[in-house]
Amino acid sequence: VQLVESGGGLVQPGGSLRLSCVASGLIFANNDMVWARQAPGKGLERVSRITSAGMTYYADSVKGRFTISRDNAKNMLYLQMNGLKIEDTAVYYCITQAHRGQGTQVTVSS
Questions:
Q1: Which strands make up the sheet holding 76-81, listed edge to edge?
Q2: What is residue 92's predicted lDDT score, i.e. its pLDDT?
Q3: Cα 70 to the center of its chain, rounded Å
Q4: Beta bridge pairs of residue 41
Q5: Chain-centre distance of CA 54, in angstroms?
Q6: Chain segment 67-106, per-residue pLDDT in tens
Q7: What is the 3-state composition of the chain as percent helix, strand, coil, each rounded to the nearest 5?
Q8: CA-wise closest residue to 79 among 33, 18, 8
Q9: What is 65-102 written as a DSSP string?
Q10: d(Cα 19, Cα 68) in Å, to the nearest integer?
Q11: Partners of 51 in the beta sheet?
C-alpha cells in the first residue's frame, strides 16, 4: 500500500487549502480513509474519516471548516480546508489500515 499526500503549503489565517492523497496497492473503494495531523511537539490527531460507504466524521476542532471527500474511480482522497487557523498548522497524513503517507506540511501564519 502506498499513500502520497500533496497540496500543503503556507497560508494566512482565514485562507483555504485542498489536500489530496493518491492511494495504490489496495482496493481503494473498500477502505475507510482518514486524515490525521501532527503539530510540532504533539501527538497524532485524527481530523476526519470517510467510510467506504461515504459516511463522514470530523473532529470538533475542524467541524464546519473542513470537508473530506473521495473519488473511488481515481483512488483519491481529499480534504478541503477553509477558514484555516494558526492552530491548524501541522503535518497532515493520509491513513488507511495500518499505512500512512509521508505527510504534507500545512502552515497557517500571518
A1: 2-6, 17-24, 76-81, 66-71
A2: 98
A3: 11
A4: none
A5: 15
A6: 999 999 999 999 999 999 999 999 999 999 889 999 999 9
A7: 5, 55, 40
A8: 18
A9: TEEEEEETTTTEEEEEE-S--GGG-EEEEEEETTEE--
A10: 9
A11: none
